[in-house]
Amino acid sequence: MNSHIQHHAGDAEAAHQHGHRHNQQDMLSVEEAYQRIMASFSPLEPVEMPLLEALGHVLAVDISAPLDLPPSANSGMDGYAVRREDIVDASEDAPRMLKVIGLVAAGQVPTQTVLPATAVRIMTGATIPSGADTVVPFEETDEIARKAAGDPLEEVAIMADLPYGCNVRPAGEDVRQGQLVLDRGTVIRPAEVGVMASLGLGSVPVVRSPVVAILATGDELSEIGHSLEPAKIYDSNSASVAASVIECGGIPKMLGIARDNIEDLRSKLEAALDSDLVITSAGVSKGDYDIVKDVLTQRGDMNFWSVRMRPAKPLAFGHLNNPKGRPVPLLGLPGNPVSAMVAFEMFARPAIRTMLGRGRLPRPVVEGVLTGPIHNADGRRVYARVEVERRNGTYYAKPAGPQGSNILTSMSRANGLAICPENLATKRAGERVRIIMLDWNEEVDL
Asked: What's the pLDDT score for residue 2?
């Protein structure tokens, strides 16, 4: 690169600008890195899971109804099951008197047959007895007056001419036997749990949750819960990455901290080979010790990239060789805590959601108005931490504090990432900006 710059250098400024452009050309765009990573992922195999535990998972098969819903015609009201022809032109002034021949409650099998000029007292959800085709609510009869007078309910006056089939829920009104009810790929919410429970399904095949091994690297790191020694920092990356894995549906497998020596790193990676994805943090940038890159390269097929984004420029991706099975994808995140979280959002989260069989991989994106500037010093795409709220139908994005990649508290305050494109040096206050919504809760819409 230096000889190329010197050959074209008319002056120092030209050389600097040319070198800057060349460095940008050597970097991958966010889209290129995304496509290369995502090409390695697909939905995992199905597992049978108890119905309630399947909540939030993705159906691995189509669900067809093994029975009609409801299984038989039933009453939508408390009232009287009658033949419609017996109540034609009924009214308060000209009621129709019917003999009450029985009662059927929900869950009972009716034994009576409704014959001409008869009625069966029926409760909501109870099966419609043979011969009946209409249900008259109690309010359209003289039952209340009879009870008040102490009269026996041996007969009842019907005081409304209701249409045929009124208040009768037909068998199969909701679902017919054999009907496709839920498609493969459906995310199971409480409503889907209810549907499958109504079909009698106690368990269901869902896409298996990926196990994600999480490994921090570096002699400077200390386990949380231990006393902090001089020159050490607590390992926050493992915790934030594990929480992110859980949030998007994966199962974290904590491998701890690999020290800056070959034996420890190799041992930790060996424990990761039964995982679906390995995520490391630190050890992948140009300034890091080469030991991490050396061991990763020795153990598999690894690529170390510079991505045209801020934060999270250094990134590694490849596969660890696995003598016992398929190679295991490994994503190496930067060491700075905000860089690690942003890189996770852009690359690890969609990979995990793909393994889960989820659609809509990216976070929701809205357009809003900046209330403070975003600066872009070196032609990378900037993902600025912002606090987003909606006022009078417009989203406003306020910078969440200092934007250094080590400032984790501003990530905590943020519920979105506002984007300054590569070709802009500044996004000014008052300008419109695209915002990736990290969190969408009641505080957004005030």
From this structure: 35
